[in-house]
């Protein structure tokens, strides 16, 4: 052994118990699970637990028999360690040592508890700690894999690439570095792979570590797939390994690296974990080979994250020594594929040459020609064994194929291994599974879906599930375009499977678990999903999946839950049925998980694109209100805005195509979305941008004016309202009668009404007329209410109330009837759902408050004891009724946004009052305590603490309580008895100066700081709303139009007649409303087809704009430039080969010329003619012969 190696050797700790030549038995594997701890524990508790179980399960190896190295004169053992580091027992058996001629780890070393494990912190590296473990070469690989994934929190891989060879100080070629950087690490990063190397700062391992570091630095911080670099190295060759030794574990161990420029056997700080394999040797390589092969074989039988295929493992040989042949043969016997880098040198080139030679001849005849040498025979057997598994070997020539083709070659290499292992599956299916696992849709398009293969449904369904679960929308699109029928694929059972695959950290998973706990169920099912959607969408649409569960609409929740529980306890036959709307179900599933690309693709495939986009926007905005993570909430809001933009753009395409059809599109009830309309969903989703569209506003204007022309002046409406016969004149212009006839036909009205009735109905049934009548009557109501409060509010019975007050009571009764109609008799929702929808509107809250106060005041004013209180309540109620009048300003384009501004400013005032209240209380209490030493009157104390400081803001400052001169002129007393009897207490003049200071500070903060803060908040709110005032007004206008469109034509108090008429028509005669447009099934199908065509036009135009964008042009130009550069590289390679061939031909020509000349001068043979000349010489001779100048000479 060289002195450098000897100097690196460190003493092994000598155990205190007697040494044995046999290794200690390891504990049984079932005890591992009991000793291990959950990874979520705090670091200190986790370290204590690791200290307790790692030494019991994982061992190290120590040489226990000194076998003399023949060339060391008895100073060194064949294990590599010097004699003085071996214990007396190891060196005392001289007879055994003399008999043994070859040291073996299994016989001459023993296992003891490991003394090096924990976390490793590289001094000066500036990165997070790595994990390390010293372990015996006989450690079970399943223990190490569990340690890596469970306790060290290393993510399970989708691929494992074990890089072997290239060790030592051998210089790595430049193109090999590029293959490792641009090929291996880049492909591994896209798949979430593990890369196994020695983990040392030398050779290929150092290049891999640098490539992993560079890619991790350049990758986005939110990238899901991280490249995990793991080092598996012999313990005996690691430099400074004594720094890692600590029987109690190191958390962390300080590790110092010297001479970081040159290659050395120090650990590389770019690796996440180090497995240091110990076979008892020191300073010798190869201790990790057997364990590494077993670990690769164990990982190859584990499942990927999706759980459908086993983790693919690939060994990559770069250069390498002769010992790699046995290592390669061992892995090939376990069906582990290998990739050889041809041209990297060493064993890799040797095997490539041998395989190329054996292909052209019989392997047996080629390898059995000479059997004289025993070593040669053994080598030929290993090579022959490797050749027999040649279908697992792939040769990659980086000089010819380039780093960009590495992932394709890698995929094909793994497919060969999958084909051998999976004999029942086709080659293409296994290759497809690997491509899906790695999310390499580009390779799948070029290699698998290029038109040569006819894919069937059974071949794609499993991969489709993997693509859906793992959020790979490009593969979902690829499968649906190449033979997968979504109607056949998506059953309700498979849909429940998709919901069971939700991430534990997602919001929808939490919501589903909440409903599952209520039903005591263990897995997601259609009822729980339906209940979550009902909670999110509220009462906007009918519940989803109720038709599948045979639950009737309108049934109470308790009855429906009982029915669902009985259904789930049975066979659940509904799970084998196909989904009625598969694309919509998948769209909802993707939206609930906040998957943008997947949700947009499903929206493109689903029908009713405008309504679907608005529903997605609504669900996402409701989810964002429940989400606690800020980043996830922002992404939900962004996706919601994207869907609103899509709904706006598609409707723009529809409106440009046909105005009348686009109007029908907005008011059509959707069977797919539970009876909701586009307008209802847009108002629930707060889609202001959608409402600002000209087409939506045009429809609202048409509904607002009814059958009248939109340009009718308001004064004509007012005059006609007070003089009804003017309806039959030309003062009011109506739209063409054919529109009315078409409308009557659509409503299936077979009654032909006379002109007098028709004109009368067309005027009085318009929402604008109903609005005008309600406003005028409401003004009259307020006048009557004010008159009664100011003039004619009589005492309790029997003297009162007055007749006009009884009229007021009846008027309010009609208002109550109208509110009940809006709450209970509007739509098909249940009573609870109707009340919930009613209370959501702010103005309905005003109405409810006003009615409750009026009933309270009415009850109190009827009794003498509570008469005054009832009158006070009536006065407050009048204020509420009057403020309700603000609602009518929503119809005005300039005043409508001001209502929103006032509402938002009220929220600003609450924040301002909070800060103001803090200062007022602080100043008021201090001021009262300083001015008055004693005052037992609570009302006066509260007045001076709260009321007086508040008046200071408006300049009302009592100088007699502050001015020191006027303090002695007051009529007051210090007698506590008189003060308790009601006398004014005297002001304490002691801290008069402090009172003035506090007053100055209070006025400075309140009048300058807080008031200016309030003004700034108001200015920000005003500018924010005013900037988009048109959008706000158009959105607000819908509520007013929808309210008066559904109201009866008569205003209170005459509205009671309309209520009686509606009761008779709807519930006795069963006459449908003329205000709700009904569409036949054929008309709905035509409308949906037309909408789908317009959506396709929009998508085509959008894709065209995307292709013509600068970024896409740059991408296409870049790909073309890369293709040209690749072709130029091939041309240069051909040119190099041609030049080489020309030089060889020139050499052959000169050699032949030399032979001809030599033969011509020798006596061996005589020729009757001279040797033939080269073609060029012949042409030159002919030219000379035909030259006239030559003949002339």
From TrEMBL:
Compartments reported by the entry: Membrane
GO molecular function annotation: calcium-activated cation channel activity; ligand-gated calcium channel activity
UniProt entry tagged with the keyword tRNA-binding: no
The TRPM SLOG domain, residue ranges: 131-351
Sequence segments annotated as region (Disordered): 1-31, 1165-1193
Domain Ion transport: 778-1029
Transmembrane spans: 714-734, 763-788, 808-826, 846-864, 910-934, 990-1015
Keywords: Ion channel, Ion transport, Membrane, Transmembrane, Transmembrane helix, Transport
Domain TRPM-like: 447-693
Membrane topology label: Multi-pass membrane protein
Gene Ontology CC annotations of this record: plasma membrane
Name of the protein described by the UniProt record: Transient receptor potential cation channel subfamily M member 4
Source taxonomy: Eukaryota, Metazoa, Chordata, Craniata, Vertebrata
Gene that encodes it: TRPM4
């Amino acid at each position: 052994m060289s002195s450098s190696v000897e100097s690196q050797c460190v003493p092994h700790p000598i155990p205190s118990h007697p040494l044995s030549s046999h290794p200690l038995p390891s504990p049984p594997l079932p005890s591992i699970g009991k000793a291990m701890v959950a990874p979520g524990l705090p670091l200190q508790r986790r370290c204590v637990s690791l200290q307790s179980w790692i030494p019991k399960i994982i061992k190290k190896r120590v040489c226990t028999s000194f076998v003399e190295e023949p060339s060391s004169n008895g100073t060194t053992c064949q294990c590599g360690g010097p004699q003085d580091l071996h214990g007396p027992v190891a060196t005392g058996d001289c007879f055994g040592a003399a008999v043994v001629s070859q040291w073996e780890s299994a016989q001459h070393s023993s296992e003891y508890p490991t003394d090096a494990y924990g976390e490793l912190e590289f001094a000066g590296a500036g990165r997070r700690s790595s994990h390390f473990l010293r372990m015996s070469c006989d450690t079970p690989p399943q223990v190490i894999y569990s340690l890596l994934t469970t306790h060290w929190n290393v993510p399970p891989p989708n691929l494992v690439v074990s890089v072997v060879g290239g060790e030592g100080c051998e210089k790595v070629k430049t193109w090999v570095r590029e293959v490792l950087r641009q090929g291996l690490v880049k492909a591994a990063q896209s798949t979430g792979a593990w890369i196994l190397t020695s983990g040392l700062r030398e050779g290929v391992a150092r290049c891999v570590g640098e490539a992993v570091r560079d890619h991790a630095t350049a990758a986005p911080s939110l990238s899901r797939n991280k490249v995990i670099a793991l080092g598996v190295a012999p313990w005996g060759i690691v430099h400074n390994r004594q720094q890692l030794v600590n029987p109690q574990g190191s958390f962390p161990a300080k590790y110092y690296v010297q001479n970081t420029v040159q290659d050395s056997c120090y650990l590389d700080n770019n690796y996440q974990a180090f497995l240091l394999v110990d076979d008892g040797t020191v300073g010798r390589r190869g201790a990790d080979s057997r364990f590494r092969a077993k670990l690769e074989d164990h990982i190859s039988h584990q499942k990927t994250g999706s759980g459908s295929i086993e983790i693919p493992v690939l060994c990559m040989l770069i250069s390498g020594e002769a010992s790699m042949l046995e290592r390669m043969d061992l892995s090939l016997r376990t069906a582990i594929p290998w990739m050889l880098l041809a041209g990297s040198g060493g064993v890799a080139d040797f095997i490539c040459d041998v395989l190329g030679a054996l292909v052209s001849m019989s392997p047996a005849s080629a390898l059995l020609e000479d059997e004289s040498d025993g070593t040669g025979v053994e080598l030929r057997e290993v090579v022959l064994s490797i050749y027999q598994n040649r279908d697992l070997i792939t040769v990659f020539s980086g000089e010819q194929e380039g780093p960009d083709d590495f992932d394709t070659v890698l995929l094909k290499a793994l497919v060969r291994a999958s084909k051998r292992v999976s004999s029942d599956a086709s080659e293409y299916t296994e290759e497809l599974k690997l491509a899906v696992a790695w999310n390499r849709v580009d390779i799948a398009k070029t290699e698998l879906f290029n038109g040569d293969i006819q894919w069937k449904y059974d071949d794609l369904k499993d991969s489709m599930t993997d693509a859906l679960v793992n959020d790979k929308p490009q593969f979902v699109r690829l499968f649906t375009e190449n033979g997968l029928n979504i109607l056949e694929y998506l059953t309700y059972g498979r849909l429940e499977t998709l919901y069971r695959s939700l991430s534990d950290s997602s919001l929808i998973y939490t919501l589903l678990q909440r409903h599952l706990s209520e039903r005591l169920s263990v897995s997601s099912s259609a009822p729980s999903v339906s209940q979550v959607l009902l909670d999110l969408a509220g009462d906007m649409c009918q519940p989803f999946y109720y038709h599948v569960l045979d639950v009737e609409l309108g049934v109470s929740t308790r009855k429906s839950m009982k029915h669902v529980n009985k259904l789930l306890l049975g066979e659940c036959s509904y799970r084998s049925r196909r989904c009625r709307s598969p694309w919509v179900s998948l769209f909802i599933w993707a939206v609930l998980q906040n998957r943008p690309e997947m949700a947009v693709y499903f929206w493109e495939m689903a029908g009713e694109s405008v309504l679907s986009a608005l529903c997605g926007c609504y669900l996402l905005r409701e989810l964002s209100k429940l989400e606690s993570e800020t980043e996830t909430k922002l992404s939900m809001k962004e996706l919601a805005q994207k869907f609103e933009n899509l709904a706006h753009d598609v409707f723009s395409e529809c409106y440009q195509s046909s105005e009348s059809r686009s109007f029908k599109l907005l008011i059509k009830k959707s069977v797919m979305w539970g009876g909701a309309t586009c307008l209802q969903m847009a108002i629930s989703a707060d889609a202001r941008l959608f409402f600002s569209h000209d087409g939506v506003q045009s429809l609202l204007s048409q509904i607002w004016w009814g059958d009248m022309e939109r340009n009718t002046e308001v004064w004509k409406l007012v005059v006609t309202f007070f003089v009804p016969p003017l309806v039959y004149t030309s003062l009011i212009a109506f739209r063409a009668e054919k529109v009315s006839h078409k409308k009557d036909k659509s409503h299936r009205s077979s009654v032909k009404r006379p002109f007098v009735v028709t004109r009368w109905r067309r005027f009085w049934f318009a929402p604008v007329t109903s609005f005008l009548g309600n406003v005028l009557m409401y003004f009259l109501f307020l006048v009557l209410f004010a008159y009664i409060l100011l003039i004619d509010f009589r005492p309790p019975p029997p003297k009162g109330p007055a007749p006009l007050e009884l009229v007021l009571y009846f008027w309010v009764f009609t208002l109550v009837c109208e509110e009940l109609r809006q709450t209970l008799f509007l739509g098909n929702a249940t009573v609870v759902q109707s009340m919930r929808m009613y209370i959501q509107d702010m103005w309905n809250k005003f109405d409810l408050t006003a009615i409750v106060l009026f009933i309270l005041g009415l009850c109190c004013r009827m009794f003498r004891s509570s008469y005054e209180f009832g009158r006070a309540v009536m006065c407050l109620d009048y204020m509420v009724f009057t403020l309700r009048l603000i609602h009518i300003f929503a119809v005005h384009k300039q005043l409508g946004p001001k209502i929103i501004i006032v509402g938002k400013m009220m929220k600003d005032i609450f924040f301002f009052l909070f800060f103001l209240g803090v200062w007022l209380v602080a100043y008021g209490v201090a001021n009262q305590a300083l001015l008055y030493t004693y005052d037992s009157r609570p009302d006066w104390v509260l007045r001076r603490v709260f009321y007086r400081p508040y008046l200071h803001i408006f300049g009302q400052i009592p100088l007699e309580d502050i001015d020191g001169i006027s303090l002695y002129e007051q009529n007051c007393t210090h007698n506590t008895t008189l003060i308790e009897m009601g006398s004014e207490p005297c002001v304490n003049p002691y801290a008069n100066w402090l009172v003035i200071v506090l007053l100055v500070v209070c006025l400075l903060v309140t009048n300058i700081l807080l008031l200016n803060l309030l003004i700034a908040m108001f200015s920000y709110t005003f500018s924010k709303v005013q900037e988009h005032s048109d959008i706000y007004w158009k959105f607000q206008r819908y509520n007013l139009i929808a309210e008066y469109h559904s109201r009866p034509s008569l205003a209170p108090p005459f509205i009671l007649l309309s209520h009686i008429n509606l009761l008779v028509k709807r519930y006795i005669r069963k006459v449908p409303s003329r205000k709700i447009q009904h569409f036949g099934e054929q008309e709905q199908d035509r409308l949906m087809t037309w909408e789908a065509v317009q959506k396709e036009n929009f998508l085509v135009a959008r894709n065209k704009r995307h292709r013509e964008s600068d970024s896409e042009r740059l991408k296409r130009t870049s790909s073309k430039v890369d293709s040209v550069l690749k072709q130029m590289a091939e041309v240069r390679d051909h040119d190099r080969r041609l030049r080489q061939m020309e030089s060889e031909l020139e050499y052959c020509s000169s050699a032949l010329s030399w032979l001809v000349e030599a033969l011509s001068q020798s006596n061996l043979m005589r020729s009757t003619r001279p040797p033939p000349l080269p073609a060029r010489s012949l042409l030159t001779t002919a030219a000379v012969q035909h030259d006239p100048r030559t003949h002339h000479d």
